[in-house]
Design goal:
14 strands; globular; alpha+beta; SH3 type barrels; BirA Bifunctional Protein, domain 2; 7-stranded mixed beta sheet; Arc Repressor Mutant, subunit A; 5-stranded antiparallel beta sheet; about 325 residues
């Protein structure tokens, strides 16, 4: 119902009468007034006129209703929003396991705050409330488990392209899943999945991006390496709050595009696009993989997304997972 009202506002550049809203939504004008009141309480700035009706002046920087209007495909067709969750990935995994309407391909779980946000390798993702993007997307890709890394590569490409297109920030990707700007971490991706021997039954792509957070709000150890969209744009003279709605919509629409590339067998296209956005290739790096540490030149990634490291001996080492540290 809220989405219907917002959609009417978007269709008209001006006032929408209470009578028209009542007729199109099939509810009384008194009920319309209550819906408008509830939208105002959610942060929408709506002007009311006895003679003309209602006009939308401003939407909040995050709006599920507006997001549903902006998404164009399967990704985001079903959106589940919570003000607070332990972890969007945890809930999305549970929903995917149960199946049904809320566990379908493309379902998105979004939270304003995470209490136990997940990072890679069992780490915690520091989640400030009501300012950043914390979301997880259920996918049913019907690809082999050995190709799971391609899901993360596809997601990283989608996020980087979406942020570039919606904000102008030159986001790059540090292998395997970090979204970087000016050598600082803007966001990250965590892919979890359930599979049998020959196929992925479902996967959950967790996405965390710092949007409207001030770096001063982070703990010192995070502040030293973190970035946020707001801080980056502030350096360019942009002082307004950034719309999470627009960034999330851009990400979901890019996921729609690049997922189609993936399932149509466009592995080489994905790898080449990742290379264009990489901040890792050609750099001297240290890679910590489990108990092992390797140093060398990050020379390439293979068709499965594994990092190819040129060792000081001249030999090549393929690495499937690990932490990369830039040495120069």
């Amino acid at each position: 119902m809220f989405e219907g009202i917002i959609r009417m506002f978007k269709e008209k550049d001006g006032f929408v009468s209470g009578e028209e809203m009542s007729r199109r939504l099939g509810i009384t004008r008194a009920a319309i007034w209550k819906k408008i009141k509830a939208l105002r309480e959610r942060g929408y700035e709506i002007e009311g006129s006895t003679a003309k009706g209602y006009r939308l002046i401003k939407t909040p920087e995050f709006s599920v209703e507006e997001l549903k209007i902006l998404v164009k495909g399967d990704f985001g067709k079903e959106i589940i929003f919570h003000e607070s969750l332990d972890s969007t990935n945890t809930l999305a995994m549970e929903l995917a396991e149960k199946g049904g309407h809320h566990g379908t391909h493309g379902t998105v779980v979004i939270a304003d705050r995470q209490l136990k946000g997940k990072g890679r390798l069992g780490r915690t993702w520091f989640s400030l409330p009501q300012c950043n993007i914390y979301m997880s997307v259920i996918v049913r890709p019907e690809i082999e488990p050995k190709d799971a890394t391609l899901l993360t590569i596809m997601s990283a490409i989608s996020c980087a392209r979406a942020i570039r297109n919606s904000t102008g920030i030159e986001v790059k990707i540090k292998w395997p899943n970090d979204l970087m700007v000016s050598e600082r971490k803007l966001g990250g991706i965590l892919t979890e999945m359930k599979s049998d021997q020959d196929r992925i039954i479902f996967a959950v792509i967790g996405i965390g991006i710092n949007v409207n957070s001030s770096l001063d709000a982070f703990p010192p150890e995070v502040r030293a390496v973190a970035a946020s969209v707001m801080e980056e744009l502030r350096e360019k003279g942009y002082s307004q709050e950034i719309s999470r709605t627009l960034i999330i919509a851009a990400i979901l629409n890019e996921l729609e595009r690049w997922f189609k590339v993936l399932i149509k067998g466009g592995r080489i296209q994905l790898i080449n696009e990742w290379k264009k956005l990489s901040s890792t290739l050609g750099r001297k790096v240290k890679v910590v993989s489990g108990k092992d540490t390797f140093s060398g030149i990050a020379e390439d990634i293979d068709d499965e997304g594994m990092l190819i490291l040129r060792l000081p001996s001249g030999g090549l080492k393929k690495i499937s997972a690990g932490d990369v540290f830039m040495l120069r």
